[in-house]
Automatic annotation (TrEMBL):
One of its GO terms (molecular function) is L-lysine 6-monooxygenase (NADPH) activity. GO terms for biological process: intracellular iron ion homeostasis. It comes from the Bacteria. Keywords: FAD, Flavoprotein, NADP, Oxidoreductase. The keyword DNA damage does not apply. It is an enzyme of class 1 (oxidoreductase). It comes from Nitrosospira multiformis (strain ATCC 25196 / NCIMB 11849 / C 71). Pfam families: Lys_Orn_oxgnase. This is L-lysine 6-monooxygenase (NADPH).
């Protein structure tokens, strides 16, 4: 079986950026055999949130390459040049392209690595391959779209699987109910509910706000309740000094702090990234409710300072939410045809994916270069992308540091892969999988 220098799990923006970094390192004389496995049948970036008029919240200059190498072929600007749209984009006078266009840019970049990515395969587990008492390689087991199991060997691994939809505890008993779905699958699932008359949207962030406006503008005109614990929808703070926390050098600052200081930093700036829609979007929602007051047609409700305490499926149809008004403590129920959970994402899926390797890993803690710390007898390097917010800062889950982060990971990889002692040690003995 071929032994890859690196296998990447997931082929979203982070691992595409890494593939670009490693491709450009060939010009420096380094050739890393990297292969990627992606569970989606083809490249797609949040396909179910590609709403009309949705724009990026981050500058196009924070693309897959510019902050690492402005002269890269894979910059957003060169993408526009290749598509013969550069001049027209300049005339838009914006730093924030539509989400549709940025998705097309990412797909364009990913297409250059089709021969190095297996689409439609879901990684099931990663096993240790030992020589005597040392783990020398990793065996990556996956299942393709036909149900065929596949195995590949790697000297190193990088996990970039993105976030897993977060479902609040009170909704867990009805997790399989088709009338309750996460924003991650919004466009696909809302098609099942074209006739829905009353819909609840739970959340206070960009996704909840975009979904509210999308439902408001739909021709079937459903009634929508926007439910959130906060008193107001607060805009993201993108002022220049605050935005410095997303600079690449701020990662060093965060990592060098004590755990207590890191927690304080995350709490201080939490609202720059979470539950923080664009101001223009907030103004649109405010205008919807204002116009309702003008016309007297109260089609939608803004249930601020409310929380869902329990959920039940009614025998005669409908989802019943028990709501608590946090201002007065009053509880009452409301029935909906569908409920959309714009409740964010969890970032710890890598722990279950790498469960069989946990005896070798130091409580899944990482070093500055995003490498999981491991026992002395564990030779492979395992890197994480998008799962290190607690140690590397709020920018870790965003595009802001992606280009530079992949440079740092690439540098670490090149050093290990070109270590002749390590390669000599792995070859003489046939590896045995440890389950």
């Amino acid at each position: 079986m071929q032994i890859h220098d690196l296998i990447g799990i997931g082929f979203g923006p982070s691992n595409i950026a890494l593939a670009i970094t490693l491709e450009e390192k060939k010009q420096e004389g380094y050739d890393v055999d990297a292969f990627f496995i992606e569970k989606q049948p083809g490249f797609a970036w949040h396909p179910n949130m590609m709403l009309d008029n949705a724009h990026m919240q981050i500058s196009f200059l924070k693309d897959l390459a510019t902050l690492r190498n402005p002269s890269s072929y894979f910059t957003f600007i060169n993408y526009l040049h290749q598509k013969q749209r550069l001049q027209d984009f300049i005339n838009l006078k914006t730093f924030f392209p539509s989400r549709h266009e940025f998705n097309d840019y990412l797909a364009w970049a990913a297409s250059h690595f089709d021969d190095r990515c297996a689409y439609g395969e879901e990684v099931l587990e990663v096993l240790a391959e030992k020589r005597n008492d040392e783990v020398m390689l990793l065996r990556v087991r996956s299942l393709d779209s036909t149900g065929t199991a596949r195995e590949r060997l790697a000297r190193n691994l990088i996990v970039s699987v993105g976030g897993v939809p977060s479902v609040p505890e009170c909704f867990q008993p009805l997790k399989g109910d088709k009338r309750i779905f996460h924003s991650n699958s919004y466009l696909r699932e809302i098609e099942r509910h074209k006739e829905a008359k009353k819909i609840a949207v739970v959340g206070a962030g960009q996704s909840a706000s975009e979904i509210f406006m999308d439902l408001h503008n739909r021709p079937n005109a459903p009634q929508v309740d926007l439910i959130m614990r906060g008193r107001a929808i607060k805009p993201s703070d993108d002022s220049p000094f605050v935005n410095e926390i997303f600079n690449t050098d701020f990662t060093d600052f965060v990592f060098s702090r004590s755990e207590h200081d890191r927690v304080s930093l995350l709490e201080e700036f939490w609202h720059t990234n979470y539950a923080a829609p664009d101001l223009v979007l907030i103004e649109q929602i405010f205008n919807v409710f204002y116009q309702q007051r003008v016309t007297g047609n109260t089609r939608h409700r803004f249930l601020r300072r409310h929380e869902v305490t329990s959920v039940s499926a009614l025998p005669e149809g409908g989802i019943q939410l028990l709501l608590r008004d946090l201002n007065g403590g009053r509880e009452y129920s409301a029935i909906y045809d569908a409920v959309v959970l714009a409740t964010g994402y969890g970032r710890d899926y890598h722990k279950s994916l790498l469960k069989s390797l946990s005896p070798y890993l130091s409580n899944f803690s990482v070093d500055r270069n995003y490498r999981l710390k491991s026992t002395p007898n564990f030779r492979p390097a395992i890197f994480l992308q998008g799962a290190c917010e607690s140690t590397h800062g709020l920018s870790d889950t965003l595009l802001s540091v992606t280009a530079v982060r992949t440079h740092e990971i690439g540098q670490a990889l090149v050093g290990m892969i070109n270590d002749p002692v390590a390669k000599q040690a792995e070859n003489p003995v046939r590896a045995v999988a440890v389950r």
